[in-house]
Every structure is written in C-alpha cells, then in structure tokens.
C-alpha cells in the first residue's frame, strides 16, 4: 500500500516541555489508523502538527508523498487534509448547514458574499451541495436550518464531522469524535468511519474508547509522554504490557497478572 501520511522523527517542544519527542509512524492510503494513549501523551499535539496548527521543533511530515511540514494550515487544508477538534468549534450564529459549508473548499466565501458576488454565488452553491451531502452522511441533514446551539452534544459532534467531510478530504484527522456520545451513537459513528474507509478516505483517529478503536482501526499507534511506545495490529497492541501500564499503571497490571496466574 502507498503511504498517505508519513511522520518522521517529529518533535514539538514548548520551552522545556517535550510534548512530542521523536515520533515516527506511517498511515497507509485508504486505511483507518488509531492514535491512542493516556491524557497528555501528545496525541492532539501530533495532529496539530500534521495540520500545521503548531510549529515543528524538528522532524518532517509528508502527506500523499509531498512534504507538508513548513506549510501554513490553510495550504494543508487545501491539499486535502481536514480535521475535527476535541472542543467543538461550531459558530453559534450560523445554521448547521452554514457551519458545514465552511468546511468545503470554497467555504470561506460563505462569509464573504460581497466579494465578487457572481463568483461567491457559484462558490456558495458548490459549498452548499458538498455540505448537504456531508450532513446526510452523518445523519443530521434534517437539521440543516437549525442553529447548533439548539442541538444536543452528540448531534453537534456530527455537524463537526460533517464540516470536515464537506471538504472531501484525502486525509481526515479525527480528535475524539465520539466524546460525549451514547454507546449507540458511538456504534453509529464507528460504522460511518468504516464506510468512509470503504470509500477510500484515509483516517487518523484519536480516541480513548479502546473497544471502538480495536473494532474499526486497521492499525494502532500508542503514545505516552510524547513518544511512541507500541504500534501494530489493534488487539495485540492493546494487550502490550507497556500499553497496559500506560493506561492502568504498573501496580494494577501486576495485580491483574497475578490473579490470572
């Protein structure tokens, strides 16, 4: 398979804090890769670096075979990389449809109708079509005219995903997309991610629900204290002793092992 994303010896330091310290991994084209680890392990900083929201201290990032490190966030987005955020970033004064339109390639023109009106109208039409398709895909198209503040948390999460999908990404970065959702909603979003993979969308998923990532991911990368501590097929990787210690602590793992002996 051809790599869609290559992260090589990535380092992101904030003063003396080594948030990401020598991370390397590859995400194959068309795959769904999970990036997991305890809170504070460097996962979000890693995808912030991939999407050019933080500066690299060292290392390189390539998307689709092209070096992307050093480019601006807007250039990265236009090159086919879209993302969601841990904290929902929907604009409360816009409708669900308008929020989703912002993720389309010409979405910024939604807020600039006075600029070259004939071009803006055409761009808005394309953005509207892409946004409605994305909203239908995540199951909230019937709420297109509603403002996001009127929606329950789980539905707001879906709108956030739809906004990213409206850009028809080659690489989709998902930062805890099912946080705050019910078990049934988590299953539905998991099925959505699998359908996106079936359509060829490469995905890098940050998620704390290990049951979900082992169910939907092809490959796992596990981080702790800014470093990769394990990677590989999901089920054996989650059973790795270093991974178990990172999540549950050495004493807890030792107790479990003694009980199972």
UniProtKB/TrEMBL annotation:
<dbReference type="InterPro" id="IPR051120">
    <property type="entry name" value="ABC_AA/LPS_Transport"/>
</dbReference>
<keyword id="KW-0813">Transport</keyword>
<keyword id="KW-0547">Nucleotide-binding</keyword>
<protein>
    <submittedName>
        <fullName>ATP-binding cassette domain-containing protein</fullName>
    </submittedName>
</protein>
<keyword id="KW-0067">ATP-binding</keyword>
<dbReference type="InterPro" id="IPR027417">
    <property type="entry name" value="P-loop_NTPase"/>
</dbReference>
<dbReference type="InterPro" id="IPR003593">
    <property type="entry name" value="AAA+_ATPase"/>
</dbReference>
<dbReference type="GO" id="GO:0016887">
    <property type="term" value="F:ATP hydrolysis activity"/>
</dbReference>
<dbReference type="InterPro" id="IPR003439">
    <property type="entry name" value="ABC_transporter-like_ATP-bd"/>
</dbReference>
<dbReference type="GO" id="GO:0005524">
    <property type="term" value="F:ATP binding"/>
</dbReference>
<dbReference type="GO" id="GO:0005886">
    <property type="term" value="C:plasma membrane"/>
</dbReference>
<feature type="domain" description="ABC transporter">
    <location>
        <begin position="5"/>
        <end position="250"/>
    </location>
</feature>
<dbReference type="Pfam" id="PF00005">
    <property type="entry name" value="ABC_tran"/>
</dbReference>
């Amino acid at each position: 398979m051809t790599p869609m994303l290559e992260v090589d010896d990535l380092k992101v330091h904030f003063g003396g804090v080594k948030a990401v310290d020598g991370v390397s991994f590859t995400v194959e084209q068309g795959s769904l890769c999970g990036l997991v680890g305890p809170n504070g392990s460097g996962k979000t900083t890693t995808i912030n670096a991939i999407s050019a929201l933080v500066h690299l201290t060292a290392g390189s990032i390539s998307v689709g075979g092209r070096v992307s490190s050093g480019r601006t966030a807007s250039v990265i987005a236009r090159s086919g990389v879209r993302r969601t955020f841990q904290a929902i970033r929907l604009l409360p004064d816009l409708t669900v449809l308008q929020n989703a339109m912002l993720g389309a390639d010409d979405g910024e023109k939604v807020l600039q109708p006075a600029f070259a009106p004939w071009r803006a109208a055409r761009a808005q039409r394309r953005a509207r079509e892409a946004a409605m398709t994305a909203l239908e895909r995540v199951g909230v198209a019937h709420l297109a005219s509603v403002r996001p503040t009127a929606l329950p948390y789980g539905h707001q999460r879906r709108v956030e995903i739809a906004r990213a999908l409206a850009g028809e990404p080659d690489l989709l970065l998902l930062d805890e997309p099912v946080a705050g959702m019910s078990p049934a909603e988590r299953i539905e979003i998991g099925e959505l991610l699998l359908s996106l993979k079936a359509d060829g969308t490469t995905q890098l998923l940050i998620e704390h629900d290990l049951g979900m990532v082992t169910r939907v991911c092809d490959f796992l990368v596990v981080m702790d204290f800014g470093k990769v501590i394990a990677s590989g097929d999901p089920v054996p990787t989650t059973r790795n002793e270093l991974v178990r210690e990172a999540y549950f602590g050495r004493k807890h793992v030792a107790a479990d092992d003694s009980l199972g002996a």
